């Protein structure tokens, strides 16, 4: 596993993916973007069976940088061992009136990316759930549960990072009213 090559690839993929989400989903500053990522899947292991903390740091840093340069709020999904709770800045949790839960992510209980994010953020907390504006899923981690309705799937130029699938989604307002309704 070449970490330098993965750093370059992850930085490019996450930056371009976020840019695509911004345009396709009409995201504004202050939007929440969730990242779910399995370092196990990136390296070809089964999800949850080969956590790579060094790769978690690389992915978390790349996602954090790409979000912050656009004034977006990065949110990191934990794995199933922490019930897919979400790592975020305490100020985001408080401003959105989200429910805080108590745990500190670890590579084998939360995931390598979430545990790296915990160390990189200034005041990290765990939220029980969120309804984000968009999400990126690297490695089939089921981030769709964190996108507010109506979720719209989106594919970019990249379909994989390492050996992990990449899927994205953003939310749109529900269209109501039927055939006589007028939409912007």
Outline the structure in words.
With 184 residues, this protein is an alpha+beta fold. It contains five helices and nine strands, in the order αβααββαβαβββββ. Strands 1, 2, 3, 4, 5, 6, 7, 8 and 9 form a nine-stranded mixed β-sheet that branches. A hairpin with a 2-residue loop joins β8 and β9. The longest helix is centred in the first third of the chain and has 22 residues. The radius of gyration is 16 Å and the shape is globular. The termini are far apart.
Radius of gyration: 16 Å
Structural class assignment: alpha+beta
Distance between the terminal alpha carbons, to the nearest Å? 48 Å
User: What integer is the average pLDDT?
Assistant: 94
**Total beta strand runs:** 9
Q: Which oligomeric state applies? A: single chain
What are the segments in which pLDDT stays under 50 over at least 5 consecutive residues?
Answer: none
Broad shape: globular
For the report, how would you describe the main beta sheet?
9 strands, mixed
Number of helices: 5
Tell me the fraction of residues in β-strands, as a range: 15-25%
Element order: H for helix, E for strand: HEHHEEHEHEEEEE
In helices, the fraction of residues equals 25-40%
């Amino acid at each position: 596993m070449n970490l330098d090559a993965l750093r370059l690839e992850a930085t490019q993929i996450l930056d371009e993916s976020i840019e695509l989400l911004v345009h396709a989903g009409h995201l504004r500053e202050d939007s929440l973007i969730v990242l779910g990522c399995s370092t196990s899947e990136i390296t070809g292991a089964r999800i949850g069976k080969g956590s790579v903390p060094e790769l978690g740091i690389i992915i978390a840093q790349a996602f954090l940088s790409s979000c912050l340069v656009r004034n977006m709020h990065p949110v990191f999904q934990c794995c199933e061992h922490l019930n897919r709770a979400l790592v975020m800045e305490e100020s985001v949790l408080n401003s959105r009136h989200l429910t805080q839960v108590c745990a500190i992510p670890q590579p084998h209980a939360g995931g390598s990316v979430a545990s790296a994010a915990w160390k990189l953020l200034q005041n990290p907390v765990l939220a029980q759930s969120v309804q984000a504006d968009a999400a990126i899923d690297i490695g089939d981690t089921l981030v769709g549960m964190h996108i507010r309705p109506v979720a719209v799937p989106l594919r970019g130029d990249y379909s994989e990072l390492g050996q992990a699938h990449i899927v994205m989604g953003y939310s749109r307002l529900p269209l109501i009213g039927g055939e006589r309704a007028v939409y912007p």
